[in-house]
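re: ur question from earlier - yeah i can do the single chain one, its not a big deal. heres the input i used so u can compare w yours
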Amino acid sequence: MTPIRISFIIISALISACGVTYTSEKVSDNFYTPGSIDATISDSILVAEIAPYKIKMDASMTEVLAVSSEKMEKGQPESALGNFVSDLCMEVINNNPGSFTANPADFCVLNNGGLRSSLPAGNILLKNAFELMPFENELVIVTLKGASMEKLFNYISEKGGVPVSNLRMKLNPTGYTDVNINNLPFNSEATYRVLTSDYLANGGDSMNMFGDSLSVEPTGIKVRDAIIRYLRDQKNAGQVINPKTDGRISK
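and the output i got, formated as tokens:
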């Protein structure tokens, strides 16, 4: 494979990863022939080919999305970062009726393993959003019956807490108590619409209870895009992010 072809593949991959589209010029496959150039020169050509695209991508990644009063990190049984991300997912999906879903979600549940980094105090950059959520996971709404909901609560208890929004519960050594959804006591006879990622909806991180779902409704928006959208909206509204924990999952 020629150095030019290698560089084209790498450049294409880098551009795709950042969601930016550029038009590339056609390069002749016969411009270089194997064995006609040593490895050092090949590396130099590759670096030179990538450099203009890297500059553009680096510049876009320094965009300030919002400002936070404190650093946000994940933790258990709840955390400022977990609360922030799950709350904003609910905000983006539920406050755009007809855009992402016809009916709102009752609550949101995510996993700590999906949050890959912290968010800094001060300026939150676009690159921070990509570091936090490097996956291409999409938000979906899963409809569960009461029995499957109880499996989910047991899972949260066994994990020692996970990121949730619009859900409150107490954990104890033997399980959980006092579950409230949307400020109402949990009803085992009801069905609930759970906002989560498609990864978890497909049983990721051992969330097997989603295999019992009555339906899975795609929203068409990725978790990372929801984060970016919310942060930009807060900046445009002149709002500073104020992370918080509020006892939504307590021991």
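Residues 1-34 have pLDDT under 50 and may be disordered. not sure if urs matches, ping me
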